[in-house]
Amino acid sequence: MQEEKKKRSHSRHGPSSLDSLSKCIRFKYFDQDEDAASEGTLLHKAAETGDMAGLDEEQALAATGVKQYGDAIVASLPGCIDRKELKETLEDLTFGTPDRVIIHVERGIVHVLDYKFVRLEADHQFQVKTYMAAVLERLAKEGITITQATGHVLSPRLRDKVKEYDYDPATHVAKVRQEIEELYERINDPFNAPTPNEDTCPKCARSSKCPAMGNAMVQLSHGCGLPMPSQFAPDALVSLRDRAIAQVLACVAETWAKQMKKANNEFVFSQDMDIPGFARRTRSTGLRVLPECIETALSALEAIGIPHDMLLQHCNITLGELGKSYAAASGLPEGTVKQQIQDALQGLAESGTAKFLQKEKRISDEALLQSL
């Protein structure tokens, strides 16, 4: 038993990972987009501290909304304990950091708040109920009796901004512990197959190897009248023929997806109509300084105390556009200007390259595959 506990302690997942693994036991996150991760951290910090500095209007509205929601609960429970961003542990199973935990000891009330600043609908009940179980387990050890337990998932950017879940404090910890124990057993069983899920498949790093996704590609192959490779997982492809077929399939799927998403995006915004099941969203892509305002912007930033050398470290020069502008202003041919720039920056700049496959233009997909 001791050995089993020790083994499990080395393979514990946090509540967020368990949330996804409960939908598909073979799920694995892509490396997170740095911009999205940075924004999420910024918004959580703003909601925790109330400091909205550096946020745009939409971001500030989202962070302020979840903070005010929690503040209203605190105001309704005078004398309560208000904990923010503190680690909770469900012994031997999982640990994590709920965004806000509000406890009224005398009245036996606990609220657990989980913030989701995402723009895509998803079910996060597993995560908040796991946080609640960890909190209830800790309070029981401290001799505090709870009679009312409510979890709140706050998603200020979604249509359903608030979801509340009431839990029975007398049975909740045991139920969640059993559910997580069973989940670990399924995860650790190598014979259990992945389960397609709309919340996890689009962000899974294993999608290219997933048999469920392979089945979708089979349907695509049949629909397009294309042959199928002997394997669908990229690292399992052996023959050049299989690689050629897979490349054609990938291009077909990618091209169709890009065109369809672009067409639908243009339709809903130009026609002011919604596609059932999808909501129109607009988000900030961050501040950008217009080219004609760069000199003024640099002066303004230096005026608030940012050193000149630090500003230069974060500036990028688009040499192609610079060459075109200088050629137009000087009357010199663009080729001459390009060569002058290359000579001037010898040893100071390097040329980037992109590597990709491009099908030969004079052969159709059908002709290509028939020739293999």
In short:
Helix content is 47%, strand content 9%.
How would you describe this structure in keywords?
9% strand; Lambda Exonuclease, Chain A; globular; five-stranded mixed sheet; alpha+beta; 4 domains; two-stranded antiparallel ribbon; 7 strands
Describe this structure in words.
With 372 residues, this protein is an alpha+beta fold. 47% of the residues lie in helices and 9% in strands.
Helix-strand layout with pairing:
Blueprint: H1 2-9, H2 15-21, H3 34-49, H4 57-76, E1 81-84, E2 88-90, E3 94-96, E4 100-104, E5 109-115, H5 125-141, E6 148-154, E7 162-167, H6 172-188, H7 211-224, H8 240-271, H9 294-303, H10 308-313, H11 319-330, H12 334-344, H13 365-370
Parallel strand pairs: 5-6
Antiparallel strand pairs: 1-4, 2-3, 4-5, 6-7
Helix pairs in contact: 2-5, 3-4, 5-6, 11-12
- CATH hierarchy, class of the largest domain: Alpha Beta
Estimated radius of gyration = 27 Å
Helix content: 40-55%
Query: Describe the biggest sheet?
Result: 5 strands, mixed
Secondary structure: number of strands: 7
